[in-house]
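Page 37, continued from 36.
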């Protein structure tokens, strides 16, 4: 009977865990739908904005024969910043682990390429890990995912752009999980600054009439592009996190269900064996009395 009691004690928490993981999966699925909608709205705008910037910057460069905006200055990178985007919470499979591994690989590979490498973390998981293990200096943008807004993304972009213009940084990279589907996220490293307009999507070959001047339009367009790229990377990471968590919790729910079923089968077999043993004792006692 002791073994039966132990099995029952194991079944109860497994069933409880199964309910918790199932609830977390449903919550993640609900958040994923909203995040997907945000991504679907942001992607076309970002692509069109990049295409427009490519055309305007190319025309401005041809007209002036110089760098048309400080954020388009393609100088030799010596001091670089890698902005690493992770999640605030765990229980999302390999979401954060993949980011950490790619970051460490980037730092190791780039150690001989740049004079100085610095990390900037967005998300508590990345901050906590790199504060303990990073071999380079680490800064943090706290509380971004507590209230994810375009204004917050703009503030981050403005700060990075100011450092680039002051030549405190020569290049800024974004490292994040790009959302493909609920089950697929791709770790992506993207150059945020400087902006190489020749690498941007090519739009329609249109010669614009500018009001106000071409330089003023470009001065407004470039910071908006940088803020949009930061915003898009945050949305991609948020959607990837919810997709990874939904997948992980779905797998955990199935595993808990399988374990509970195996324990239930083990319990039933042990109970049947105990009953059979008791019946055999009764029959043996009855035969002994008859004899």
């Amino acid at each position: 009977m002791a073994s039966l009691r132990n099995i029952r004690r194991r079944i109860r928490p497994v069933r409880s865990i199964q309910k918790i993981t199932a609830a977390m999966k449903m919550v993640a699925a609900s958040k994923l739908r909203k995040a997907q909608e945000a991504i679907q709205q942001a992607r076309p705008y970002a692509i069109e904005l990049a295409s427009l910037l490519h055309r305007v910057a190319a025309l401005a460069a041809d007209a002036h024969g110089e760098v048309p905006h400080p954020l388009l200055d393609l100088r030799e990178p010596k001091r670089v910043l890698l902005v690493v985007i992770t999640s605030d919470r765990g229980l999302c499979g390999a979401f954060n682990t993949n980011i950490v591994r790619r970051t460490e690989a980037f730092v190791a590979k780039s150690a001989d390429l740049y004079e100085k490498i610095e990390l900037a973390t967005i998300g508590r998981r990345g901050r906590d890990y790199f504060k303990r293990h990073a071999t380079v200096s680490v800064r943090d943008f706290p509380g971004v995912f507590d209230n994810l807004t375009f204004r917050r993304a703009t503030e981050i972009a403005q700060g990075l752009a100011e450092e680039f213009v002051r030549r405190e940084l020569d290049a800024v990279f974004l490292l994040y999980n790009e959302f493909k589907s609920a089950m697929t996220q791709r770790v992506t490293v993207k150059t945020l600054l400087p902006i190489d307009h020749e690498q941007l999507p090519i739009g329609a070959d249109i010669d614009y009439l500018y009001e106000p001047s071409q330089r003023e339009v470009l001065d407004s367009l470039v910071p908006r592009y940088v803020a949009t790229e930061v915003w898009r990377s945050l949305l991609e990471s948020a959607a990837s996190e919810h997709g990874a968590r939904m997948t992980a919790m779905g797998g955990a729910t199935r595993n808990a269900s399988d374990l509970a079923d195996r324990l239930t089968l083990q319990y039933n077999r042990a109970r049947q064996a105990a009953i059979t043993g008791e019946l055999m004792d009764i029959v043996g006692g009855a035969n002994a009395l008859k004899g």
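The two ends are 31 Å apart (CA to CA). Flag for discussion at group meeting. The chain has a mean pLDDT of 88.
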